[in-house]
Amino acid sequence: MSFVGRIEQEGVVWLWLDRPQRHNALIPELVRDLRSSLAWSAAQQPKALVLTGRGRSFSTGGDIAGFIEHAASAEALSSYANQLVGGLHDAIMDLLKFPAPVITSVNGPVTGGAAGFVLAADMVAMSDSAFIQPYYSEVGFAPDGGWTALLPERIGTAKALEIQYLNRQISAQHAERLGLANIVRPTFALEDSIRDWLDDLTRRSGRTHTATRSNIWDADRLTAVKRRLDQEQSRFLDLITMPETLQGMQSFIQRRA
Question: Is Secreted one of the keywords UniProt gives this record (predicted)?
């Protein structure tokens, strides 16, 4: 069973996170499948890549139930978190290095580290009912997925800190004003909007797009992002085994139940 669907159509690869019964919450198996699908996608030499989610949510970030299941010992929990966050960050780097334009279609809520799939995209279409929200301070996690490695560069340091300190929910309309989304559409219209983009992209020079992307995400910039993602991972591991974090996870699960 794969947790990521994939198809190639007319020179474009479409990927979708496929764990809808858990709102596409991230587990190590899903991020491994995503990385495998991204490698397959790059080998197709597509004109563009589209990433979306199946079901009502794009992705609700790391599956807290998965963390709790591995909380019998600090070693087991730390190992699980290291696999998940490390795999997520590797997938984000794969997206930044991808040799063609990357489009993310945000069909529903995006929380926690799944925001990295938005931050690593070149163009983002958001459902008008979708939102982005950190939730780290509600649980006691350290931010991962680029919330500190990529977001401040996009929207400014002060705004990035405010959103994370106060767990602000970023509506689709606010995301568009901040520059995190290019367009906001009703969910049923997202695919049509993306196909309009693809019609435009695919009739232009793919070599130019590749050169443009590699100039922007050059070695120096990628190295800086990787260092900051590694820093996020290290601090995530520092906090994940603390008793207060386990209590925060249990309380979060209870509130959602």
Answer: no
Name the residue type at position 175. Answer: A
- What's the pLDDT tens digit per position in 214-236? 999 999 999 999 999 999 999 99
- Mean pLDDT value of segment 187-206: 96
The CATH H-level (homologous superfamily) assignment of domain 4-189+206-256 is 2-enoyl-CoA Hydratase; Chain A, domain 1 (3.90.226.10)
Tokens of 27: 């587990």
What's the helix, strand, coil split of the chain in %, to 5?
A: 55, 15, 30
Q: What angle in degrees, to the nearest 10, is found between the helix axes of 74-97 and 28-43?
A: 20
Which residues lie below 8 Å from residue 130, measured CB to CB, with a gap of 6+?
A: 58, 106, 107, 108, 109, 110, 172
Answer whether residue 257 shows pLDDT above 80.
no
3-state secondary structure 185-230: ECHHHHHHHHHHHHHHHHCCCHHHHHHHHHHHCCHHHHHHHHHHHH
- Which residue bears the tokens 């970030």? 61
Give the C-alpha separation, 81 to 65, whole Å. 12
Cβ neighbours for 194, distance < 8 A, ≥ 6 positions apart: 50, 103, 105, 125
Condensed to tens digits (0 to 9), the pLDDT of residues 67-116 reads: 999 999 999 999 999 999 999 999 999 999 999 999 999 999 999 999 99
